[in-house]
Write a structure and sequence with these properties.
Blueprint: E1 6-8, H1 11-19, E2 27-34, H2 40-53, E3 60-63, E4 68-71, E5 80-81, E6 100-105, E7 108-114, H3 120-138, H4 187-192, H5 196-207, E8 256-263, H6 264-273, H7 278-294, E9 302-310, E10 324-332, H8 340-354, H9 357-371, H10 374-377, H11 381-397, E11 401-408, H12 415-418, E12 419-426, E13 432-438, E14 441-448, H13 454-464, E15 471-474, H14 479-486
Parallel strand pairs: 5-6, 9-11, 11-13
Antiparallel strand pairs: 1-4, 2-7, 2-12, 3-4, 6-7, 8-14, 8-15, 9-10, 13-14
Protein name: Alcohol acetyltransferase
Region (Disordered): 145-182, 217-249
Biased composition (Basic residues): 233-246
């Protein structure tokens, strides 16, 4: 009897299991639009080839007495048409199933993932390899690679969002056909349970060369790894009552999605004109949109956002497992200048010192020490879930929105020429947007558990007022909207 490989969930993944709910099943979606309707037979062949490279994606989720773990399986993914609403639940405690799905709808190749398996960067690697393999099968005459190299006649490459090396770029002398994304790789354990000096030397060497891709879109603005002027140990600002968005829940808890598409260069130019990174500029726009659509913030004039940081840009890793941290930024209206430029610069000033390797390492080491406390390790898993659920609930009360930017994606030819927009969104317990850019088009996808979309309308108006051409598409969620679509 063969023993199957397994690995405990990392500290970032456990929270997704504890915090999932009917309204927010902790599923996210990344899509790529090709230039013709998807051929499901070719997409299945591309998926079979890509799947072999990602042993992590073979895993199923199991539960023990004290913790959850991922276990290797012999299951095979099957491409299906898109028939469920977006970000429908994937993980079911009583079933042994894969933690991702691949679908197609017209020209879209769609990947949905349970967040406990992988983060946005890891999922983007998978989707980029899948789309590249598909295009090479669809247009074999355009494949520039020699036969027999890498995936479906081409090298194993990923988007330029971090240190994702192809098999034939490896310098470890390993087999070029060896899967690049193993199940057991744990970057949190590798870096933040080691001696501090070892982590510092490895991370410092890498961060000097790595670009902060998750935070910007081909961004020429200041890097968040740079210290702000007059840096030092900043005083912790007092916590204020945070404005929380309310609304009408969607009828069956499905996620409301609204997609905005716009020229990336035009929005990036606006951010650069304010001297800030794109993510902070978009976050400031989001805050203004919430304020304008709220009809007045009342006494709760502080808006706060959670922003994920891709740790691979500072700590080298090719693991597709979760490897990120979050940074919280806020703005209180009525305490200084409230124009868009001032808000974005204030957010940037808060964000940059929190997103340095040293600051992130200190924070993550504290989390891991807490996670590995002997008393907590012997607590039964259901009780651990309850503790994490309460911690997550408390954190949520201190947030108004969440934002995420996967950055600019570049694919190898012929996929680069055949893939247009790429889109990213998540199931949401609060209003959120996710951004990414490809082929010169920036997509900002808003998700919310509420029917109302006033904040999205204001966001688009703020951009169009600044000369940006914005295209809007919305998914139908109410009975009336669905009936109109079917009629």
């Amino acid at each position: 009897m063969n023993r199957r490989a397994w690995v405990r969930l990392d500290n970032a993944s456990n929270i997704f299991l504890a915090a999932r709910s009917e309204a927010d099943p902790k599923v996210f979606r990344i899509s790529a639009e090709v230039d013709a309707d998807v051929d499901p037979v070719l997409l299945q062949r591309a998926l079979d080839a890509t799947y072999e490279r990602y042993r992590l994606y073979h895993a199923v989720l199991r539960s023990g007495v004290f913790w959850y773990y991922l276990q290797d399986s012999d299951l095979r993914p099957v491409v299906t048409p898109e028939e469920q609403h977006t970000c429908a639940p994937i993980y079911q405690a009583d079933r042994r199933n894969l933690l991702f799905r691949v679908m197609h709808h017209r020209r879209r190749i769609i990947l949905e993932i349970f967040h406990a398996l992988s983060d946005g960067t890891g999922a983007l690697w998978f989707l980029s390899d899948l789309a590249t393999a598909y295009v090479r099968l669809r247009y074999p005459e355009e494949d520039p690679a020699p036969p027999g190299v890498g995936l479906v006649g081409g090298p194993h490459t990923g988007p330029d969002i971090g240190p994702h090396r192809s098999a034939d770029e490896r310098d470890d002398g390993g087999d070029a056909d060896e899967p690049a994304h193993e199940l057991t790789a744990d970057s949190f354990g590798h870096y933040f349970r080691r001696r501090r000096g070892e982590t510092r030397s490895a991370a410092a060497a890498f961060s000097r060369a790595a670009a902060p891709a998750v935070l910007t879109v081909d961004d020429g603005a200041r890097s968040p790894s740079a210290e702000p002027e007059g840096h030092g140990r900043a005083a912790r600002p007092p916590r204020r009552r945070v404005h929380r968005v309310a609304g009408t829940r969607t009828p069956d808890n499905r996620t409301r999605v609204v997609e905005l598409t716009m020229p990336a260069k035009e929005v990036l130019a606006l951010a650069r004109s304010e001297g800030v990174a794109l993510t902070m500029y978009l976050t400031a726009l989001f805050f203004e949109s919430i304020r304008l659509s709220s009809g007045g913030l009342g006494r709760d004039r502080t808006l706060a956002a959670s922003v994920p940081v891709n740790l691979r840009q500072f700590f080298p890793s090719t693991s597709a497992r979760n490897f990120f941290a979050t940074v919280r930024v806020e703005h209180t209206y009525g305490e200084g200048a409230d124009d868009l430029g001032s808000i974005s610069r204030r957010l940037e000033h808060q964000f940059r010192p929190k997103a340095t390797p040293d600051a992130l390492e200190r924070r993550l080491r504290r989390f891991i020490r807490f996670e590995r406390t002997p008393a907590l390790r012997v607590v039964p898993r259901p009780l651990k879930d309850g503790i994490l659920r309460l911690i997550n609930w408390g954190n949520n009360r201190g947030l108004t929105v969440a934002v995420s930017n996967l950055g600019r994606v570049a694919l190898p030819e012929p996929a680069e020429s055949r893939v247009g927009r790429m889109l990213f969104h998540v199931s949401a317990v609060r209003p959120q947007f996710c951004a990414m850019s490809h082929a010169g088009q920036l997509t900002v996808s808003f998700t919310s558990p509420f029917v109302e979309t006033g904040h999205v309308r204001e966001f688009a108006r703020l951009l169009t007022a600044r000369g940006v051409d914005v295209t809007v598409a919305a998914a139908r969620v109410t009975e009336r909207e669905i009936a109109e679509e079917e009629s």
